[in-house]
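Figure 6 in text form: structure in, sequence out.
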């Protein structure tokens, strides 16, 4: 049934010939424009579906009131949300069945589905690659991990009663690739990305075939074929802006021609120069989901995990951590960046840019409310929201050898990091000294030998202007919460640390106003998190 939406607005056409309107209309079937004295003087210039913004160009020289009618065919159901399921939700045929049921239990949604590799497939593929480097060409078929991966995927296909042929070609290619690695005796970052891509390529093919088998029309997509364009930083690539229109065109185009639930590989992209498969860093399917959410301008992005939402701390450190009902994009981004495995560090960016709510839900317990992440929330009662631990951090104490008041010291220090391509996490400064930590995610994805020589190089360069002390095996404890109440937070923190006899080596309050970071020794960190959790979340009198 056709539905017509009218709106009007005042604009100075001569000064601003392009008029934008935010609207929920996703498919503009026809556009009619009426002005005070002219009719049909405007034409539809572009529809940016990503931000639900309709842009119209007006050719009239002086138009006061522009009235537009957009006719939208409501009978054509539009894609509404993204649902991402991680490896923990897809560990077996049984789990795939439950996930399919879960998706179909929302009849009012038309979701785009993003899937990770099954269970621990990515780890197994990486291990198989490492073994292939040294096992010799004749021994590839005895790599335990290869047999495991083959067996898991063939068994899953069989149990779901889908044709093995959907993954047969991939299993053959995987073995050939491992043979190639064994022959070359090397596993480059580029080959690693190609190798791990088999996980997502196979899980999505099996799942799409299963959905079709049970009568839910689905279509499988490899992200690297539908416009996920990235930098060529293999194993940790960044998504480029061109991705959004390309993905929108691809998914919307197919959907409007022939609607079928899109089942998209998470984690993968295509390098813009190399045209090779890239990956978005471990846990990158969350970022795939938010990127699709923004590209299509969807109503909601759901990431389905094996926990009841974002928790007050890592449940592996403290099993009784509680779900956090609401977070802002800023809080979630800090939490992810500072080490909470539950969300990919970059995943909040597209959601925040497009202002699309993200819901973190439990695929094992779909009734649990989960965590809702939005632009703003009521902070009046908020003190501390979550405690995050990032281990194995390198810290540098840098003391200037120049006189007090000498300008340019900070600039020189940071230009050294820029030149060496090393990013810095937490910083605290006085006039003549800086303490900082180095981002392990960027540093540690390099080879061990390369890391060591890069650190030596940093120290060597810094020693030209300062006395440098390199401290390893440190942890960052990030307190995500309402920094407006930092005095209350810090009072409680130092009470706990004093009682436990733990010395804080550096402290920094982020400009984001949601994070206070403390640096302690690695071997004290977990105990410290448990004690802080007890003080903030389990003791009513202290909170
Ligand atoms: N603050 C936290 N809140 C929730 N989960 C966390 C937190 N910190 C670490 N985790 C871990 O993150 C896991 C979920 O993330 P992940 O394994 O990436 O899920 P998936 O593979 O389903 O995307 C949980 O099982 C939990 O062990
Ligand atoms: N399979 C990839 C990508 C991913 O996002 O996985 P998960 O959703 O299971 O964290 C990984 O293990 O890193």
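Output sequence:
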């Amino acid at each position: 049934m056709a539905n017509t939406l009218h709106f009007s607005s005042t604009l100075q056409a001569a000064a601003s010939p392009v008029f934008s309107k935010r609207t929920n209309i996703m498919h503009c079937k026809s556009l009619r424009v009426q002005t005070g004295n002219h009719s049909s003087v405007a034409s539809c210039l572009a529809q940016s579906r990503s931000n639900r913004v309709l842009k119209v160009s007006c050719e009239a020289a002086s138009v006061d009131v522009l009235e537009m009618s957009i006719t939208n065919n409501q009978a054509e159901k539009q894609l509404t949300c993204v649902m991402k399921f991680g490896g923990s939700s897809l560990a077996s045929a049984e789990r795939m069945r439950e996930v399919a049921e879960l998706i179909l239990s929302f009849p009012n949604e038309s979701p785009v589905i993003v899937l990770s590799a099954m269970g621990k497939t990515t780890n197994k593929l990486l291990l198989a690659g490492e073994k292939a480097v040294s096992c010799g060409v004749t021994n590839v078929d005895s790599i335990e991990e290869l047999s495991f991966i083959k067996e898991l995927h063939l068994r899953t296909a069989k149990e779901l009663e889908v044709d093995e042929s959907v993954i047969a070609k991939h299993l053959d290619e995987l073995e050939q690739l491992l043979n190639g690695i064994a022959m070359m005796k090397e596993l480059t970052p580029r080959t690693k990305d190609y190798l791990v891509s088999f996980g997502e390529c196979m899980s999505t093919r099996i799942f799409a075939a299963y959905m079709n088998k049970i009568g839910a029309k689905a279509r499988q997509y490899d992200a690297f074929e539908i416009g996920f364009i990235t930098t060529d930083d293999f194993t940790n690539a960044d998504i480029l802006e061109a991705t959004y229109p390309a993905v929108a065109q691809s998914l919307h185009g197919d959907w409007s021609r022939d609607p079928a639930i899109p089942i998209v590989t998470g984690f993968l992209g295509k390098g813009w120069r190399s045209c090779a498969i890239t990956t978005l860093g471990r846990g990158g399917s969350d970022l795939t989901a938010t990127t699709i959410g923004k590209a299509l301008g969807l109503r909601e992005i759901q990431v389905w995990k094996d926990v009841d939402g974002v928790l007050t701390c890592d449940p592996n450190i403290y099993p009784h951590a509680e779900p956090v009902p609401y977070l802002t994009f800023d809080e979630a981004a800090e939490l992810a960046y500072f080490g909470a495995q539950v969300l990919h560090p970059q995943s909040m960016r597209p959601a925040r840019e497009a202002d699309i709510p993200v819901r973190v839900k439990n695929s094992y317990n779909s009734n649990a409310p989960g965590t809702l992440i939005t632009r703003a929330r009521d902070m009046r009662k908020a003190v501390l929201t979550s405690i995050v631990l990032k281990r194995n951090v390198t810290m540098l104490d840098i003391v200037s050898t120049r006189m007090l008041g000498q300008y340019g010291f900070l600039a020189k220090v940071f230009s050294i990091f820029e030149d060496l391509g090393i990013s810095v996490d937490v910083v605290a400064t006085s006039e003549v000294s800086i303490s900082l930590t180095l981002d392990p995610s960027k540093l540690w994805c390099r080879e061990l030998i390369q890391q060591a020589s890069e650190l030596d190089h940093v120290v060597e360069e810094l020693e030209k202007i300062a006395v440098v002390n390199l401290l390893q095996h440190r942890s960052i404890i990030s307190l995500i919460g309402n920094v407006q109440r930092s005095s209350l937070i810090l009072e409680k923190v130092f009470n706990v640390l004093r009682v436990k006899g733990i010395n804080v080596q550096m402290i920094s309050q982020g400009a984001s106003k949601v994070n206070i970071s403390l640096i302690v020794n690695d071997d004290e960190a977990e105990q410290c998190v448990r004690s802080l959790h007890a003080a903030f979340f389990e003791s009513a009198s202290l909170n």
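Caption detail: The CA atoms of residues 237 and 280 lie 5 Å apart.
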